[in-house]
Amino acid sequence: MTNVIKLRKGLNINLKGKAKSACQAIKLSREYGLIPDGFEGITPKVVVNVGDRIMAGDALFVNKKSPEVKFASPVSGVVATVERGERRKVLCVKIEADETIQYHDYGKHNLAEMNGDDVKHLLLDAGLFGYINQLPYAISTTPDTTPKGIFVSALRDMPLAADFEVELKGNENDFQTGLTALSKIAQTHLGIGASQNAEALRNAKDVDITVFDGPCPAGNVGVQINHISPVNKGEIVWTVDPSAVIFFGRLLNTGKVDLRRKIALAGSMVNDPQYYEVIIGTPIVDLVGGKIKSDNRPRIINGNPLTGKKIESGATTQTQYLLPHASEVTVIPEGNEADEMLGWAMPRANMFSTHHSYLSWLFGKKREYDIDARVKGGERHMIMSGEYDKVLPMDIYGEYLIKAIIAGDIDRQEQLGIYEVSPEDFALAEFVDSSKLELQHIVRQGLNTLRKENE
């Protein structure tokens, strides 16, 4: 019998512009970019030169601290540019793509004849191992770690997030192959939502299935781990995005590193929100071009509105290409041009509020809202009001943990459960925070500091 865990803490933010299930492929772009910053915690070392001809699946860079972890090119073509920032930090490796993708052939594999080490070596050789993350620290893992379990969450419930069941359609066989491959390495857990009905999820093999019933962030893999097998000091778990599971399965079934995926283009400023089949590293401009409403200034986000990265208009930065773990690109109003009479004091029926400050809550939870990117207030002293606990369904004291990170008290951080969290777990807390603190940034700083102390 499938285990069901019901969560009551959390908050669903129902935004306008959800993507319809319709999906279409976009034509190949002229240029693609692989972003090292999309793989948290690595120090990239480029292993190609400008002008080199490569195939899809060839390594572009490696993790300097663990050189066996390679990162594969999503397309074939010629290395056009290695973009660097301060202190020669690698920001992006750009490839001028061929008209038809040529793949490095890693050979088809019989999974029944493979063990866990064989699977790890194949993923390392093909440049896909870096798509596996770990707790603690919420970083891309390395092959010297031994996980007590591997966790995959197929539930995406952040605002405007892509529905994995749409992405799964047509990829069921590769998804199952990927799950079976991971189960060769360690006990694998699959978390799904109560409303998800796909056969490939409900009856997945070689994994322990847990159904999570509750509001956002029930889909966060960190929340799921906290309720299934909490991470204690000295323990490690691996986490894998369900899209990466499909990549692993394709590699085993076809011998190719095929990084095609369906992503949602969503948001209230998108003319026709729907899914598009693209390749990791696709230029965002090729995806959103001609699809954005022109009545307001847009904010384009590489990811969802709570955890994604803002794309600076007109700038050539590393956010201009689809990030490796992004399942959606969202476009919402910037809000700078808004001119509201009486500001917050004006009674409203169309504004979202977590505290019933506006009359909009009378219209029910299914009402959709058009929320812009304004913070609506400045940073101020931290208020110990219990706000975080209401939207953080984990067995930790969120406010006290944040205070310990700000104070730099490492012992206190460990006692309060920092090994169990990732920045995205605090995305909703950041949204409701009266103090307007950048909680995800604070948590990331705390995790990075703790990691340096323990290395």
Task: Offer a quick outline of the entry.
Helix content is 22%, strand content 21%. The protein has 455 residues and is α/β, with parallel strands linked by helices. It is globular, with a radius of gyration of 22 Å.
Mean pLDDT: 93
Strand order of the largest sheet: 1-14-13-12-15-10-11
In terms of DSSP E residues, the strand content is: 15-25%
Quantity of strands, as a count: 20
Intertermini distance: 42 Å
Count of DSSP-assigned helices: 12
Overall spatial form: globular
- Assembly level: single chain
Structural class: alpha/beta
Q: Point out poorly predicted stretches.
A: none
Q: What profile does the largest beta sheet have?
A: 7 strands, mixed
The radius of gyration is: 22 Å
Kindly state the percentage of residues in helix: 10-25%
What does the model show?
- The chain is of the alpha/beta class and 455 residues long.
- 22% of the residues lie in helices and 21% in strands.
- The protein has helices at residues 116-125, 164-168, 172-183, 199-202, 221-228, 242-254, 284-288, 387-391, 398-407, 410-415, 427-432, 439-454, and strands at 3-6, 23-25, 31-34, 44-46, 53-54, 59-63, 66-72, 77-84, 90-97, 132-135, 139-140, 150-153, 188-193, 208-213, 237-240, 260-266, 274-279, 298-302, 309-310, 328-333.
- The strands form four sheets. A seven-stranded mixed β-sheet has the order 1-14-13-12-15-10-11. It has a six-stranded mixed β-sheet with strand order 2-17-16-20-18-19.
- The longest helix is centred in the C-terminal third of the chain and has 16 residues, at 439-454.
- The protein is globular and about 65 Å long.
